[in-house]
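User: quick one
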Amino acid sequence: MNLIDVYIHEVTRRLPEKNRDDIALELRSTIEDMLADDFTEQDVKEVLSELGNPAVLASNYSEKPMHLIGPRYFDVYVSLLKMIIPIAAVVALISVMAKYIFNYDENQAILNMGLLILGEGIWVIIEVFIQTFFWLTIVFAFIERVDNTKDHSPLSINGKKWTPDDLKNVAYIPRKKAISSVYVFLGLLWTAIWVTVYFNADQLVGIYHKGENGLQFVMPALNQTVLNSYWPLVIISVGLEVALALYMLLKKQWTKNVAHLNVVKEIVGTISVIVIITNVAIYNHDFLIYMSNLLNFSESTILGFIQRITIILYPIFAIWNCIDGYLKAKIRK
Amino acid sequence: MSNLLDSLSTELRRGTLTLAVLSQLQTKQYGYSLAQLLEDSGITIEQSTLYPLLRRLEKQELVESIWDKTESRPRKYYKLTDFGAEIYEKLKTEWLVNSKQLYELLKGENEDESD
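Assistant: Done. Structure below.
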């Protein structure tokens, strides 16, 4: 095989069809010019190494970029990635949670459902990340190649050249005022966990004994039928928590409206908790007897203790959460 | 450090290559003869840069090319167009002004040091 032929082929196969023959002919003529009349293979190698990597030579000819996304679009590309991925991930996570909650299967091993949501949630987030990354990269790599403008200056997010007026559109968020997407994610995770526990309380909350196969569930503390009858309250609370999470994700910082919505969520949550906890019917009577034997108090004392602790502590945390929201919303710099 | 120096001086030279090539195309040249001319004047230019550059200049209508296939080895000759000659003159003036300014700047620095 003739090295010169192969070299020329390696260059021209990377070029558009219409230029190939002309460039091939010129390249051959040049290479022969560079060689003495009687040349050895070593001479050919030297000449070819002077011309360098065929891929580089071809890219110099074609003027097509040798990068996927160049400086003109890179900043817009990264900004869009950072904007789209968290939103897409949260939407995907919520849809996974909704799927499990609405298709709730009575016979399913219960603790598994939480794990399934967690597992599929993580998988869905990874998938969303890969998909978003892939498609956005494809789109930008394409734009990079069809953009014929001579101007190579980087673009700002609105697709135009930067001007000082762009500064007016920048959302400057002080660190203490900001709501990170991790915070929102943890909030949603918490919602998923407590909903799962609530609707499966008769298999999760109660007395455990140490058995041969690890912990064994002996007796539920709560009455599932009564708990389930409060489903409208639970749906409203979940709806408010998801709405607040999405709103926070959108605003990225504590504002008055975020704080207002937070208060609505806390009020509804607190009322729901108090209504449910003060209904004596939710407690499993056997559980109260068991506890009274164990702790040497009467059943009503134990019941009162549980109720009072909840009625005092829950509102304190709720009120603190509301105030904290307004304090953060007030931060100016 | 020598790496950095290399890349900086390559960068410094890059902008002048077009001017150097245009200057030698007032008479017609083929690729290799042009490379030789530039090399003899001490201008370093990668071959893989020079030949594509010639085509780019042709596309920008600064130079025109003609194939001479009468001799044993076909050769593609390049020559400045009228438009190319005009641009070359302007670019040359620009360069002379710039280099004079830079020279003054560098000379001034030397004097400062000797103070």
